[in-house]
Amino acid sequence: MEIHHPYLLFLGDVPDALAAKTGLGIVDWRKEWCVGQYRLYGCNADANLPDMAPGEAAANGAKTMIVGAVNAGGVLPDHWVESIVAALEAGMDVASGLHMRLSDVPAIRDTAARTGRKLFDVRHSAERFSTGKGTKRSGKRLLTVGTDCSVGKKYAALALEKGMRDQGFDADFRATGQTGVFISGRGVALDAVVADFISGAAEWISPDADEAHWDVVEGQGSLYHPSFAGVTLGLLHGSQPDAFVVCHEPTRKTMRGVQTPLPSIQDVIDLTVRCGRLTNPAIRCVGIAVNTAALGEDEARKLLETISVDHDLPATDPVRFGVEAIVERIGKEFGNP
Amino acid sequence: MEIHHPYLLFLGDVPDALAAKTGLGIVDWRKEWCVGQYRLYGCNADANLPDMAPGEAAANGAKTMIVGAVNAGGVLPDHWVESIVAALEAGMDVASGLHMRLSDVPAIRDTAARTGRKLFDVRHSAERFSTGKGTKRSGKRLLTVGTDCSVGKKYAALALEKGMRDQGFDADFRATGQTGVFISGRGVALDAVVADFISGAAEWISPDADEAHWDVVEGQGSLYHPSFAGVTLGLLHGSQPDAFVVCHEPTRKTMRGVQTPLPSIQDVIDLTVRCGRLTNPAIRCVGIAVNTAALGEDEARKLLETISVDHDLPATDPVRFGVEAIVERIGKEFGNP
């Protein structure tokens, strides 16, 4: 699966920015891939792109329209179907992260068949995976892990890809969630894979590579999250990381969506090493990424300093202070390019 | 989902007993539910049941025909379709553990619709699960875990259900694999659930119950198996066991299907306790079930004695020596009925 850019971002008529977070996440990282946004009357999200309809976007080179918004209930409203059909008619492929398959809507399916355009449902991988094998592959891998869900694992991985490339590393972001798939044009939404194939899918996204090559793998969930730890463990085993970065949100008391208390950073390091050794005995932590958005700058710097000293690892907020310290550590531990 | 018995076991024309292991597993545990077997010319498996065709089975009270065999490739051969259609015409439901859905075959789907019979594809749960919540539920739970796949977790759970009931416990086997689903008439084939819902499905199969009630949950995979550990961890978190039994095969050197060495029993106890505490802080091991089929009786007794002393836990081979010692331990630790 390879989703071709440039993209037209379809934001529908969603009531707020949160409902368009997939689309906005794409713009954050791949603005140069986005020729415009296509909004319906009443849309309250704004990606700060030129507004354009499918015909104009296609004329401007757009290859794929991304359904980068989700309405209440996650279903595809009837009045969006017409917009998707229009994109296909204009010559674009359409990619969606909705739970519902585009191809389950007869008007969309029929138009795609007639025009020869592709439909991508990233929550429904068409790829047939093997079960994981656990065999060591060539090349190097870094995985972002978390004390919780939604603590910046995707952001940290993308920032590390960029930071490592800036220092001359041969590094590629590997997407494991839907927004990540749109940002990189490929990958697998792991949460949608059948349970038996989690680690197999993780092996598939980070295949054998040159010894100096780094896959920077987007983490999912947390080994301590009672809803999603199975996905996290399968991803850890399948991606067999040489290095991992712990992502953390310091103001959170309970884990997202449940009443379970947050684990400590040290808990996460220990359990990740213990479980990760199964497929990579040399696994080690190379840094801590902390989301300090809720703190003032002084407070943030102080917290990062404390966390860094406590764990004897570089600690940074990738958004606020960049990831240079972690990239430097990777170079020290594994060799610079 | 409730699959109604009595069953007619369809074994097709499979070349050997291994290809009919689902059907034979049902007979091992629920012979009283099986009115007969339906075999096609050339079948080399034998469940030691009266041979009968669908009409005769239905006249003898059979409510469901179980497709208890799998041909090479796991697909449904054309010449089996006719047999399935005949079962529906005779008034039976049909349940299958094949990867392919019965309802994807037009002749089967149409006949089921016309006759009003049900089709069960246990590898494709029709149930919509929630994500796991990790909240403590009432009642007690026991989970079988393993040093590897295929080390007797289902057998141990079924033997414990029986042994506990014999001692007056209110205990119910909870199936998490396809054969287990046929044996109990309900449950979920966890390996076929979408990754995000593993622990949620495990919560669903072992709901709130009387304080004295025991769910005896069939384990899956191993926390140390690089292919399936994600399923194992989600099942552990979702089933939130009070007690667990480690299942082990002492002659195995590497894990099933991969090159990874087998963990020790102690490794499995330690990691199960460590991870299981997330949803049940009081989790503890209550016994070890060892498959000693490859050993002579003296050797087997000696090995069990050593394992028992080493871990300060009852150790037994459920097939050879029963599970009384483990049931006794459960009574001591949690109270007898």
UniProtKB/TrEMBL annotation, chains A, B:
Residues 42-124 form the D-glutamate N-acetyltransferase-like N-terminal domain. Gene3D superfamilies: NAD(P)-binding Rossmann-like Domain, P-loop containing nucleotide triphosphate hydrolases. It holds the Pfam family DUF1611. It comes from the Bacteria. Residues 130-327 form the D-glutamate N-acetyltransferase-like C-terminal domain. Coiled coil: none annotated. This is DUF1611 domain-containing protein. It comes from Stappia sediminis. The lineage of its organism: Bacteria, Pseudomonadati, Pseudomonadota, Alphaproteobacteria, Hyphomicrobiales.
